[in-house]
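Dear Dr. V.,

Thank you for agreeing to look over these. As mentioned in my earlier message, I'm a first-year student in the group and I'm still getting used to reading structure tokens, so any feedback on how I've presented them would be very welcome. I ran two proteins. I've put each sequence directly above its structure. The first is here:
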Amino acid sequence: MFVNHHMKGFIMNKLIAALIATLFAASAFAAGHTASPTAGADSKMQQSDTKAGKDAAKADEKAMKADAKAEKQKAKADAKADKKKAEAKADKAEAKADAKADKAEAKTDKAGSTSTTSK
């Protein structure tokens, strides 16, 4: 099966980006829970920051899933195209072999008909 070697690095970069985004979101979440709030406003601000971090992590996760799905569909389409190319090549080879066989048969028939007419 044809594999695009450039896609391997691309996928790895996406996975590393997802890991970094997840670690950032986790650290933001942990920082929001370890700090002791000094006032109610600070607490609400920390909660909104934590929520924003979670939302960003969810958005990153959704984007990664969409990218993975698109890559999977592209790989599937590439495989389908490669299969069609292989089938076309096989059909062409079969047609060539049939033409060669027909030519050989015609040559044999011609040789056979000249030998019977000379008797």
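The second protein is here, in the same arrangement:
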Amino acid sequence: MSPTADDEVEQTRLRETIKAYAGGLREGRGLAQGFQKQTDDVLTWAIGLIGAGLLALRSFTTAACPASPRQHALLGGVCVVGTLLAVAVE
């Protein structure tokens, strides 16, 4: 049984579809990698800035207004919750 013209047309269409699908997968992978890098960078900055806020918390609140240890713990807790949310959302 020899292939007919219709079979050859179908095979050509199938090859083109497979090539287009593979090209789309390659393009999508590049976009996904770029998005992941941006997400990682944002998360790193968020954790770094919140950590710096935790380190400066005591001296900042003492200079701005006298705060009790309970108030320091409350303000620090807000920073810790912010860090946890940043990690959870990522």
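From my reading of the second output: The chain is about 90% helix and 0% strand. The helical segments are 5-64, 69-89. Does that match how you would interpret it?

Kind regards,
E.
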